[in-house]
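Q: Can someone sanity-check these two? First one:
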Amino acid sequence: MIDESKPIFVQIAEQIEDDIISGSLSEESQVPSTNEFAAFYRINPATAGKGVNRLVDDGILYKKRGIGMFVAQGAQARLVQVRKDRFRDEFVRPLIAEAAKLGINPDQLSEMISTEGVPA
């Protein structure tokens, strides 16, 4: 399950984000501890902590002293918006730029996308 192309702490943060976006981890629910992540992935707890702390710094998780980490209110909406913005920047804008180079107008591009979305 570990992807060698990116740091493990990033993968842990992304897994938590994915679980929040999908609803597997709801707002105000407790996330697994760094020790649980460390045991599951067979990594150093400090590495797991780095991934969790990244989300704390972003306001996605918060700490209840002596209890653990929890999903913050509004975390799902914030994560969805961040991912939408990233999707636009990484995929949509380059797609539009390439379509313009090829002389594909917006209507043609929309038709191409609609056609690709239809199962065979």
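And here is the second, same format, sequence then tokens:
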Amino acid sequence: MKRILFDSRFSRLGYLYGTTVGFAWGFIWSTGRVEKREGLWVFRGLPNWAYRRGGVCVGGCYLTGQNVTDAVLEHEAVHKRQWQRYGFLMPVLYLVAGRDPLKNRFEIEAGLEKGGYLR
């Protein structure tokens, strides 16, 4: 079952779908620069209501206001890899992991300090 769902053609399709959604959301709401960094398409200048916390990774896109430090982008690049691994399941698995970033396995794997959750 893991071969079908994780790191598979099916998960790759989910990653591409997520990236398409991220591009659409970014192009609609971004008022800032769009650039490729850390392997991510970074959309800046989104309104605060368009993403949670400091920003959000959707597929291969990082959507944010201005939260684009090197550490944050390294953190978000791990989320991109998670999208590639889990594809369509990523949003569901993330939701099940919980809203508390200190207990969410995806945030822990991406690095709590780099994500700005620890000082």
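A (reply): Looked at the second one. Residues 2-110 form one domain. The mean pLDDT is 95.
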